[in-house]
Design goal:
Layout lengths: L3 E8 L3 E4 L11 H8 L7 E5 H13 L6 H6 L2 E4 L12 E4 L3 H11 L4 E3 L3 H9 L5 E7 L7 E4 L7 E11 L3 E10 L7
Parallel strand pairs: 1-6, 1-7, 3-4, 3-6, 4-5
Antiparallel strand pairs: 2-8, 7-10, 9-10
Protein name: Deaminase
GO molecular function: 5-amino-6-(5-phosphoribosylamino)uracil reductase activity
Pfam family, one: RibD_C
C-alpha cells in the first residue's frame, strides 16, 4: 500500500504563483535544486490535474534539461481530467477520466511507490476532503505576493489539524514543512 503526499510550493502568503514572477519566485538555491533533483524525490508516482499537466508538459517540451523537468518527464504520471484526450503527448503520462478519489484509492492499494501530487489545487483539495491524504507537504518561499499573487492554495479547503512530522531549511531561506493532516468537522473544542 502506498502513501499519498499532497505537495505544494508556496509564497509566504499562500499563493501557488504570481504574475510576472519567475519559477520558484526567483529565490531557489543550489541546495533546494539538488533536493528536488535527487533520486529520493523522484521515486514516486506523480498525480496531477489537466491544468498542471498542460503547464508542466509545456515547460518540459521547451526546456527538457531544466532542473527536475527531465526527471519528471521520465517519471510515471497519472493525469485526472475530463477535458484532455488519450493518448497524452508527454512521455509516461496516463489519463484517468473517471472519479479521481476512487482512482487514487485504488492506486494506493496496488502501487508500491509513494504517490504525490504536483500542483493541482482542486485535485489536491478533493483528495484531502476525501481523507485519502497521508502527508501534506509545503515548501515556503520567502516572498509575499499580495498584489501579484495568483491561485491561493488553501481557499475552499476544509478545516485541517496538521501534525508536524518533518521540517528542513534549504539555502538558509526556504522552509519545508511536512504534516499529517486530519480533516476536522468543526473547530476543536467547539
Amino acid at each position: 500500500m502506498s502513501d499519498l503526499v499532497v505537495d505544494f510550493i508556496t509564497s509566504l502568503d499562500g499563493y501557488a504563483s504570481a504574475e510576472g514572477w519567475p519559477g520558484f519566485w526567483g529565490v531557489e538555491g543550489p541546495e533546494y535544486l539538488d533536493f528536488i533533483g535527487s533520486g529520493e524525490e523522484n521515486e514516486h508516482l506523480a498525480l496531477m490535474g489537466a491544468r498542471t499537466y498542460r503547464l508542466m508538459s509545456g515547460f518540459a517540451a521547451e526546456a527538457s534539461d531544466e532542473a527536475g523537468l527531465a526527471e519528471l518527464t521520465a517519471m510515471r504520471k497519472v493525469v485526472f481530467s475530463s477535458t484532455l484526450s488519450a493518448p497524452l503527448s508527454w512521455a509516461n503520462s496516463e489519463l484517468v477520466t473517471g472519479d479521481a478519489v476512487s482512482a487514487v484509492r485504488e492506486l494506493k492499494q496496488r502501487e508500491t511507490r509513494p504517490l504525490r501530487t504536483i500542483g493541482s489545487l482542486s485535485l489536491s483539495r478533493s483528495l484531502i476532503e476525501a481523507g485519502v491524504v497521508d502527508r501534506f507537504r509545503l515548501v515556503i518561499f520567502p516572498v509575499i505576493t499580495g498584489k501579484t499573487g495568483q491561485e491561493r492554495i488553501f481557499d475552499g479547503y476544509p478545516d485541517l489539524k496538521l501534525d508536524l512530522v518533518r521540517s528542513r531549511t534549504f539555502d538558509g531561506q526556504l522552509q519545508l514543512l511536512e504534516y499529517i493532516p486530519t480533516v476536522l468537522d468543526a473547530p476543536p473544542n467547539s
